[in-house]
Design goal:
GO molecular function: ATP binding; sequence-specific DNA binding
Protein name: Sigma-54 dependent transcriptional regulator
Low-confidence stretches: 135-141, 391-398
GO biological process, one term: regulation of DNA-templated transcription
Mean pLDDT: 84
Pfam families: AAA_lid_14, HTH_8, Response_reg, Sigma54_activat
Number of helices: 19
CATH topology of the largest domain: Rossmann fold
CATH superfamily of the largest domain: P-loop containing nucleotide triphosphate hydrolases
Radius of gyration: 28 Å
Keywords: ATP-binding, Nucleotide-binding, Phosphoprotein, Transcription, Transcription regulation
CATH class of the largest domain: Alpha Beta
Length: 447
């Protein structure tokens, strides 16, 4: 399907130039000569990209950016600017325009900007689709948990609307820091707001500044063109900085300046740029110890720590384990299809008492592994233990001894509550009568 582009300019020769250039490149084009026609055509045509002149007979192009971006297709705006109005074009990008081009036109520059803006628009559509999935499918709605600790965190998130302060999320590996960061973004931002994720440990020190802030053409060897940084791409939205303790010390002062002033320079650039982007930083490290060791700036820590969420490990919120188990079972049923599988009551109890050193991530991995290997409708803990090793917090033998003790007690308690009726006991435990009889004999239960 052809990409749809709207060109808004009061000069007929400019509109004709774009029509000829873009139709030849197999784009679908519509034009407008003033602001009123621009809004009407955008609503009818639903373009993906709008080339917008700032000087229109009935409107200032700057005033059209927000209404254009609010139409159903949420187009990317590329400003058409005369050489003398570059400052206005920069202002336009701060208001949400993607980029700008200047007169007289450079066809190569137009093609590069158009290609990048379409790529960005595709990312936006994917992001929007994910939001719709999250709204429509309960599996993706929010951070899972109903323990008092998690309920307090959720109630605090709601108070962050209409703020732009940075947020620090701490917690052990696997506790769900990234999921919580995404929920914060989706809760407090507009649906069209972008979200960009960066794992600070995956970027080499010499490329980090360019990745974060972008660079100008010729800024360094290999910089063949201008590049927008991740912070700029997330304008009006959120940048999630995972493993913030790994950010190079040489970059920390520049990040601090951006957080405080909302301004930055691209690498090799001399023009100060401004963008409204919220920073959410994640870490499993003790940043105060990192400060003492000389690896992290104290002033950056204090600025990030304005709003602090600490995610407790799973062993400190055991009430959430059963809820998470059910969530993961729903998730894998949706993903793998076929027969819906459940965890037996022995498994729920065992999982509730296991220490989970790998936290929710370990729990999810164990359930998924058992889900794949299990042939029946019920996952039993024996299958989970045999499907893969648990974290090496104890020996396999120790784990099995714990399991057997828990399993025996549950069978005894259930038999007692069912007055010794083995058939009803098997139904309550969601295991076969044959399996129950085997367990009774194995554990020497006399009832």
């Amino acid at each position: 399907m052809k990409h749809k582009i709207l060109v808004v300019d009061d000069e007929p020769n400019v509109r004709i130039f774009f029509e000829e250039l873009l139709e030849e490149a197999d784009y679908k084009i519509k034009t407008a000569g003033d602001g009123a026609a621009a809004i009407k055509n955008a609503q009818d045509f639903l373009p993906e990209i709008v080339f917008l002149d700032l000087n229109l007979p009935d409107a200032n192009g700057l005033e059209l950016i927000k209404p254009l971006k609010k139409i159903e297709s949420h187009p990317q705006i590329i400003i058409i600017s005369a050489l003398g109005t570059v400052e206005n074009a920069v202002r336009a990008t701060q208001l949400g325009a993607y980029d700008f081009i200047t007169k007289p036109f450079d066809i190569d520059k137009i093609e590069r900007v158009l290609t990048r803006s379409l790529e960005y628009q595709n990312l936006y559509k994917e992001n929007l689709m994910l939001r719709q999935i999250q709204q429509e499918c309960p599996l993706y709605q929010e951070f899972i948990g109903e323990s008092p600790q998690i309920e307090r965190i959720k109630s605090r998130i709601l108070k962050l609307k209409n703020t732009d302060v940075p947020i620090l999320i701490t917690g052990e590996t696997g506790t769900g820091k990234n999921i919580l960061a995404k929920q914060i973004h989706y809760t407090i931002n507009e649906p069209s707001s972008p979200m960009v994720y960066i794992n600070c440990s995956n970027i080499s020190e010499n490329l980090f500044e360019s990745e974060l802030f972008g660079h100008e053409k010729g800024a360094f060897t290999g910089a063949v063109g201008q590049k927008r940084g991740r912070i700029e791409e997330a304008g009006g939205g959120t940048v999630i900085l995972d493993e913030i303790s790994e950010i190079p010390y040489s970059i920390q002062a520049k990040l601090l300046t951006f957080i405080q002033e909302k301004t930055f320079f691209r690498v090799g650039g001399s023009k100060e740029l401004r963008v409204e982007t919220r920073i959410i930083a994640l870490t499993n490290r003790d940043l105060e110890k990192e400060i003492e060791a000389g690896g992290f700036r104290k002033d950056l820590f204090y600025r990030l720590n304005v709003i602090h969420f600490h995610l407790p490990p799973l062993r400190e919120r055991r009430d959430d384990i059963v809820l998470l188990c059910r969530h993961f079972l729903d998730l894998f049923h949706a993903g793998y299809g076929g027969v819906r599988k459940e965890l037996d009551s022995v498994g729920f109890e065992y999982f509730r008492n296991y220490s989970w050193p790998g936290n929710a991530r370990e729990l999810k991995n164990q359930i998924e592994r058992a889900y794949i290997y299990s042939d029946g409708e019920t996952l039993v803990v024996d299958e989970i233990l045999s499907a893969g090793e648990f974290s090496k917090s104890g020996s396999s033998r120790g784990l099995r001894e714990q399991l057997q003790a828990v399993e025996k007690q549950i069978i005894v308690d259930t038999l007692s509550s069912e007055h010794g009726n083995r058939k009803k006991t098997a139904e309550t435990l969601r295991i076969s009568l044959r399996n129950l009889q085997y367990k009774i004999a194995e554990y020497g239960i006399d009832m």
